[in-house]
């Protein structure tokens, strides 16, 4: 997909912008206007805020910065600035009502299509390979995932329907042994990779073992049944304090049902199925489960080596299966399905080392705090990722059923607070391997 300048790049950008917008429309047309302005959880924005914020970012970066055009609505910049307006306060703002928000994003988009006809992709670094357009596509798709999480928190009757994910095609269990050695982490070449994925750099890891699949509901339910939520031995000090204070007893959206569990997914009750990856757990819960099974969370580098490193060539791939963009057989991405697929459902997505379902299904918590790769430079602005570097956030990898393929690849990095679980978060475990075991 090397489209340095031609028609191909323009067409590709137009398609990706349109694809993002139709997803946004599905998410915002599914409910009435009263529902769009309501706050479904203090953790989330009203859907109408996400909608106009998407348009405002597109205006700032494409219409004004790349295009050098007159502002469409400079007066609303403050309202839709995520740093100035904390989520819990957004419903009280004088937001554009739904019809005006829809008209605003449409006006901005018209100007962007006009700009796209005229832009010269070689002009400046911001537009090389269409980067600024790609950034805006990914931004809208990320908000579309956030809006899907808002829908999951909404009470009331279901408004979405989707076919269930595919059934298992192969049996997957146990762990995969990854030999000690170097691999290339991050990228210099993926044209739409964001600043925090760059630069490519060599990382040496000692041998380790990583689960061949994400931790399932069945395995996680065993942790609950064994009293895992009542035993501080498995929890970090901060995790135990949070477990107590928040009264955690099971993943978000789970409720006891007879001997087992049921959970609410987009307005419908379903029995918790044992072979699906667990979703809606915080980093603290993931860490406690891993301790209970005598393992730990993988580091971010361990996750990426398992996902990208090809022992036959020594190269790091864009995705576990190769360099080609995901298709429906590779991974459960793109909101085609509304929950994670059972383990073994995507044999075509396996990594060279034999690790399954790294992309799609659930975002996977890693033990790593969010920081820049060695040699990081903020581009095009510090606010995308650099201001979040430090000890507060943990990195998640791989994308979920709610993530679009444009906002997800082997190098893509997501981050959140360790208490968060309204996102589509799960995990897999890893462990150190002694030299004798590694040599076997
Ligand atoms: C990368 C998902 C953590 O939602 O806060 C959206 C993406 N950045 N608008 C977020 C993002 C600016 C970001 N995450
Ligand atoms: Fe945003």
UniProtKB/TrEMBL annotation:
Fe cation binds at residues 53, 139, 143. It catalyses: gamma-L-glutamyl-L-cysteine + hercynine + O2 = gamma-L-glutamyl-hercynylcysteine S-oxide + H2O. Gamma-L-glutamyl-L-cysteine binds at residues 87-90, 416, 420. Keywords: Iron, Metal-binding, Monooxygenase, Oxidoreductase. Residues 17-147 form the DinB-like domain. It is an enzyme of class 1 (oxidoreductase). Its cofactor is Fe(2+). One of its GO terms (molecular function) is iron ion binding. Its EC number is 1.14.99.50. InterPro entries: CTDL_fold, DinB-like, DinB/YfiT-like, EgtB, EgtB_Actinobacteria, Sulfatase_Mod_Factor_Kinase, SUMF_dom, SUMF_sf. Residues 172-431 form the Sulfatase-modifying factor enzyme-like domain. Pathway: Amino-acid biosynthesis; ergothioneine biosynthesis. The keyword Cell membrane does not apply. Catalyzes the oxidative sulfurization of hercynine (N-alpha,N-alpha,N-alpha-trimethyl-L-histidine) into hercynyl-gamma-L-glutamyl-L-cysteine sulfoxide, a step in the biosynthesis pathway of ergothioneine. Belongs to the EgtB family. This is Hercynine oxygenase. It comes from Salinispora tropica (strain ATCC BAA-916 / DSM 44818 / JCM 13857 / NBRC 105044 / CNB-440). The gene is egtB.
């Amino acid at each position: 997909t090397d489209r340095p300048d031609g028609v191909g790049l323009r067409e590709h950008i137009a398609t990706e912008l349109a694809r993002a917008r139709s997803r946004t429309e599905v998410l915002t047309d599914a409910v009435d206007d009263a529902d769009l302005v309501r706050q479904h959880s203090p953790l989330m924005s009203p859907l109408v805020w996400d909608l106009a914020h998407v348009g405002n970012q597109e205006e700032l970066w494409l219409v004004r910065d790349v295009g050098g055009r007159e502002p469409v609505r400079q007066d609303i910049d403050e309202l839709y600035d995520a740093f100035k307006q904390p989520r819990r306060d957004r419903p009280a703002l004088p937001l554009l009502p739904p019809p005006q928000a829809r008209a605003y994003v449409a006006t901005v988009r018209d100007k962007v299509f006009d700009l796209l006809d005229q832009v010269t992709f070689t002009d400046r670094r911001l537009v090389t390979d269409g980067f600024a357009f790609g950034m805006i596509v990914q931004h809208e798709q990320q908000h579309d995932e956030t809006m899907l999480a808002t829908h999951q928190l909404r009470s009331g009757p279901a408004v979405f329907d989707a076919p269930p994910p595919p059934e298992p095609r192969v049996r997957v269990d146990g762990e995969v042994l990854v030999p000690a050695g170097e691999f290339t982490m991050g990228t210099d070449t993926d044209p739409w990779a964001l600043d925090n994925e760059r630069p490519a750099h060599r990382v040496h890891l000692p041998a380790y073992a990583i689960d061949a699949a994400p931790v399932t509901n069945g395995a996680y339910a065993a942790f609950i049944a064994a009293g895992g939520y009542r035993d501080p031995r498995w929890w970090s000090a901060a995790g135990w304090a949070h477990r107590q204070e928040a009264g955690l007893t099971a993943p978000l959206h789970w409720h006891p049902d007879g001997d087992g569990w049921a959970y609410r997914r987009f307005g419908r009750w379903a029995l918790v199925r044992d072979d699906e990856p667990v979703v809606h757990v915080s980093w603290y819960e993931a860490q406690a489960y891993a301790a209970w099974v005598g393992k730990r969370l993988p580091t971010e580098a361990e996750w990426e080596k398992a996902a990208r490193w090809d022992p036959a060539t020594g190269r790091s791939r864009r995705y576990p299966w190769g360099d080609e963009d995901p298709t429906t057989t590779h991974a459960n991405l793109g909101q085609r399905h509304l929950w994670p697929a059972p383990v073994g459902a995507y044999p075509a997505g396996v990594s060279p080392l034999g690790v399954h379902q790294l992309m799609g299904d659930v975002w996977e918590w890693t033990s790593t705090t969010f920081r820049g790769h060695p040699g990081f430079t903020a581009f095009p602005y510090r606010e995308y990722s650099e201001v979040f570097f430090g000890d507060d956030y943990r990195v998640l990898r791989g994308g979920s059923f709610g993530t679009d393929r444009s906002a997800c690849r082997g190098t893509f990095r997501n981050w959140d607070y360790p208490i968060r679980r309204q996102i589509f978060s799960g995990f897999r475990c890893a462990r150190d391997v002694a030299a004798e075991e590694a040599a076997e």
